[in-house]
Design goal:
214 residues, alpha/beta, Rossmann fold, seven-stranded parallel sheet, 7 strands, 14% strand
Length: 214
């Protein structure tokens, strides 16, 4: 598993589309684990129901599962990068306990207005900008043309638009608030009750897309 802070590149390796494995780029807070205000302590980490099952099913179906998360709590001084890494180690441990595994973890610690330099800046990695996904594509050998993006917030839908993948909105975390805020203008391929339901839809949709290409 790759656990990495952001790179500065924003360019997909030439030829990445059409080669490699499909991936599901998944948000963290409110999607895999319970939403809390600025998760800064591992003691507050709680996996959401269906999270491990969703990861397990996706990987069994040939998808890489890649966590892509904004963690402005670092810029705000609420937690440092070592604290974020400790949370991710525990998240990974709990998933593995359910036979589930992430293929990579990519973190943006920046904020354009909070904190001080170098963490206070307008970066290429903060969702909905696609810097972290571009890095994952290069490092993990991902085919974006067959990939998906899952999350509970508008920035996750924006990320999906930026990288050209179908967006799946989960109703956990801020999901219901996101539906209310966007009204009938939801730029999504599907709305799912939780990550397990999102995984089931993605697997079925990928099978439909494969049949259409034959």
């Amino acid at each position: 598993m790759t656990d990495t802070s952001p790179g500065t590149g924003d360019r997909t390796r030439a030829g990445a589309r059409g080669r490699g494995a499909p991936a599901v780029f998944v948000d963290r807070d409110g999607t895999l684990n319970r939403e809390v205000d600025y998760l800064a302590n591992v003691d507050r980490l709680r996996l959401l129901p269906g999270a491990a099952a969703g990861v397990r099913r996706l990987r069994a179906s040939g998808f890489k599962v890649v966590l892509v998360t904004n963690q402005s709590a670092v810029a705000r001084g609420l937690v440092d990068l070592s604290g974020v890494e400790a949370i991710h180690r525990e998240l990974a441990r709990r998933l593995v306990a359910h036979d589930a595994r992430l293929d990579g973890i990519y973190v943006c610690p920046h904020h354009p207005e909070a904190g001080t330099a170098p963490l206070r800046r307008r970066c290429r990695c903060r969702k909905p900008r696609p810097g972290l996904v571009r890095r994952a594509v290069r490092e993990l050998g991902i085919d974006l043309a067959r990939s998906y993006c899952v999350g509970d917030a508008a920035v996750d839908l924006g990320l999906a638009a930026a990288i050209g993948t179908p967006a799946v909105l989960v109703l956990t975390g801020h999901g219901r608030r996101t539906v209310g805020a966007l009204g009938g203008r939801l730029p999504v391929a599907h709305v799912a009750t939780n990550f397990r339901a999102a995984a089931d839809w993605i697997i079925a949709d990928a099978e439909r897309r494969t049949r259409r290409r034959r």
